User: Fold this.
Amino acid sequence: MEYIRLAMKNLLRRKVRTILSLLGIGVAIAVLYSLLEFQKGYEKGLQGQLDQLGAHIMVVPKGCPYEAATIVLHGGKWPRYMEESYFDQIKGVSGVSQAAPILMDAIIDPATKDSKIFLGITDEYGRLRLKWKMDGPGFSNEKAREVILGTSIATKLGLKTGDTFHLRQDASGRAGGKDDADLKVVGVLDRTGTQDDGFIFMPLHTLQQVFKLPGKIVVVLVRAKKIDGASLDKTMQNLRALGGNMNVFPLSELLNNASQLMQVTKVFVLAIVLVAIAIGAVGVLNTILMTVFERTKEIGMMKAIGASPKDIFTLIWTETVLLCTVGGLLGIGIAIVSSRGIEWFFRKALASQFSALPDTTLIGISPGIVLLCVVLSVGLGVLAGFYPAWRASAVKPIEAIRGAN
Amino acid sequence: MTKSAVLEVERAFESEALPNPYVVTAVNLGKIYRRGVEEIHALQDISVTFQQGQFYCVLGPSGAGKTTLLNLLGGMDVPTSGTLAIAGRTVMEEGWVRLSEGARDRLRRENIGFIFTEFFLMPTLTAMENVQMPLLWSGKEDRKYAVELLERVGLGHRLTHRPAELSGGEMQRVAIARALINRPKLLLADEPTGNVDTKTRDSIFELFRELNGEGLAIVLATHDRELAGHIDHVIHLHEGCIVEG
Assistant:
């Protein structure tokens, strides 16, 4: 018989108490696991979106750059515009490999609050999106009354290549008359796994006309020739030298900004989780200490039949570490099984701070985080078990047995 | 026995040149418990030897000091005064402790088996696992011998039963098998029949007799005069002192 088996049998003696202690640790570890996974998933999702953009620098009208970037990444309405002519200047800046102008707008159905996001693009946008594949011929010219649909929105609207997209059905009151409102579907994108799946793309000039924003764009995405730190800085300096009321910033900064924002939230939540874990640890300490007091006679007997203080210490310590480890594994299991629900909760809870979170899975299974939570659980057991184990090892067999008699 | 006799016994153990007949020797042992300023003399001037293969009875009424004496003999407690040697190792010499707690634990584990009035079996373990438990402390595993012992005490058919599924007599038999698993030189039994009926008492005593017949030294503490009447060597204890029977 081994220590671990004996410890397990001892823990199973008081099933309810053991289960409650397991739950205490389990829930705390589940929250910690979910939080760390969420943070990792968020950064990964954001990085994925940036990679999909195929650009390194963003040029937007003055305003909150984070807000602008969020709009670019996730789509939406941002009532700040710049002149399309500015794009021609950007193209010619030293260090710029490619640039793509974008106009963005959205129509929100007042009844359902459902929004349709429109992107006015040029051929340059397609060249940035190297991985784009679509079913259909694409835009025939720069002013064509045509749309390309992301796969999700196409499915939602029940449209396929060759169908007609009726803008006026959105009843926004902004989209002109019948002639303006009917557009031909000339392509449906294959799934990209990004926000592109939910966008409706039009030629830039068509969108400018439909939304009555002639000559306006919202953002210019820039791919640099060289992306090492110095070269990218130089390209940005050149862009800034163009003047105008513009913000020029690298997209990597967006990731940093978003991460910092998430970091602040994480630190706050982490503090609460650590307090919960500490409470769980005190609960475990209390449980084990109670069992030590209840089993004083038994411990005395063990010593009488040859157990040394070290043996008793090891046994009680094993019980505590086992309890915390199983609790931790249970917590990781809970977090994984209920990850969809937890993710939904996080998305809901953080909606006010993060206008748009990546659509990719945020709470997954990362071996590193699983390992960290297991190590933390074991460490918790080691700490919480020390005092009860020491108390148990100090039991005098003679006194314990005399107490029994 | 004088102190020089004790030392002679120790020397014999250490040299291994001579077969040593003594398992425990005690000279002028005393034990005082202190409660605040009050001193309770539990044992006074106890001088006694226990030889291998002999059966001893410590007889006395409740409070006579039987349990205290057994605890000292088993190295579970240290005397306040006197000299004590267990299995050739000096535990106490003229009131000075000579062995650390760890060393006493080891000494006890390797040489002495304990049986209590309360059986102290682990309720979640089977009879087999209870018997094997002391092996955990010595880092050994001997399932075959544990089965052999349980068969020896007549419980070969109860290996997988838990204490709650056993009678009082059966539980005490499991406790006896557990006390024997480390092949001790001396078995200390403190009122081992105190919690069983007369018939079970007799069968347990018969088992002790058989074990003693196989060469195991046994010291049995009891207040049962009838039981003591069947034992060869009886030490009468009264208010912490050895008295004439």
Summary: Residues 3-243 of chain B form a domain with the Rossmann fold fold (CATH 3.40.50.300). The longest strand of chain B covers residues 22-35. Chain B has a mean pLDDT of 84. The radius of gyration of chain B is 18 Å.
